[in-house]
Amino acid sequence: MPRAIKAVTLDCWGTLLLDGPGSDDRYRRRRLATVGTLLGEAGVPASSAGLSRAYDELARRLGRLWRDCKDVPVGEHVRILLESLDAGLAERLPPEVRAAIERAYAEPALLAPPAVDPGAATALPALARQGLALAVVSNTAHTPGAVLRQVFERAGVLAPLRVLTFSDECGVRKPHPGIFELTLRRLGVAPHEAVHVGDDPVLDVEGAIDAGLVAIQVSPDGRATAPVKPAAVITGLGELPGALGRLGA
User: Fold this and answer.
1) Is the pLDDT of residue 212 over 80?
2) Confidence bin at 1 (pLDDT 50/70/90)
3) Greatest CA separation found in the chain?
4) Is-contact 237 124, C-beta < 8 A?
C-alpha cells in the first residue's frame, strides 16, 4: 500500500449495504402501521390513508432539503410527519409517546436488516491491518445513522470503521464537499491521502473528486457510470484491497 493513501471512506447504501437507498422505502408500511398503533393507544385515531398522506408530505419536504445538500435528525422527520397528520399534534403528545413513535419510525431496518456486501467482513479488517483508517460517509433516508451503526455491528463490519459520518447527524449530504471534509478532519488526513468508495456516479464519484479525494466506483457490472471517470471500478468490496493495490502500483 503506497504511503500516499492513508484512509478509505465508504458509502453505505449500494456499497457497504447491497440495497440501494431507495430500498429504505420498503419499511414504509411497517413504519406507518406501528405509528398508527401507538397513536391509537394514546387516544389519537389516525387512518391509514391519513398517515400515508402525511408520509408523502414528509417525503416532499425532505426532498427539498436534500436537493440543497441539507439534512435533519430523525426526530424532525417525526415532527413533520405528525404535524402533516394534525397541526399541533407533535406538541400535544406526551414525551414518552413521541419517543416511542421515533423508535418505531427509525428501527424497522433492525427487524428486517438490509444485506451487507459479503466481501466487507474480510476486506475491511484486511485494510485496517495494513494501517488504513476506515470510515463511512453516508447520506441517510428514513433510517438514521444510529440504527445503521447497529446494522453494521450485527453484521460484524463495525469494528474496523474508525469514523462514521451520517447526514442526519451532521446536517450535510453528499455530494457537498463538507461531509467529506468533516470525515477527513476526524480521521486526521488530507483529501489527497484518501480514497472514497461508492456506487452513485454523482454523490460518490463526482462528490468525492470535487472534495479532493480519489474515487472508486462500485458497479455490479464492472462498468463506470459517472460522467467524471473514477480511478477504478469494482463489483463489490471483496475487490477493494486489490483495486487499492493497483492504484498504488
Assistant:
1) yes
2) very low
3) 65
4) yes
What SS3 class is residue 217?
strand
- Decide if pLDDT at 3 tops 80: no
Q: Cell numbers for 75, please give them.
A: 426526530
The runs of H, that is alpha helices, within the chain are 28-41, 48-67, 74-85, 89-92, 95-106, 108-111, 120-129, 145-155, 167-170, 177-187, 207-210, 240-248
Report the b/e string of 57-87 with b at 16+ CB within 10 A: ebbebbeeebeebebbbbbebbbbbbbbbee
3-state secondary structure of 45: coil
pLDDT in tens, 45-94: 999 999 999 999 999 999 999 999 999 999 999 999 999 999 999 999 99
- What cell numbers appear for 235 in the block? 463489483
DSSP alpha helix (H) spans, 130-176? 145-155, 167-170
| pLDDT tier, 18 (very low <50, low <70, confident <90, very high otherwise) | very high
Strand partners, 49: none
- What is the number of other CB atoms lying within 10 angstroms of the CB of residue 153? 12
Please give the CATH topology (third level) of the domain spanning 7-19+114-248. Answer: Rossmann fold (3.40.50)
**Global confidence as pTM:** 0.94
d(CA 16, CA 82): 32
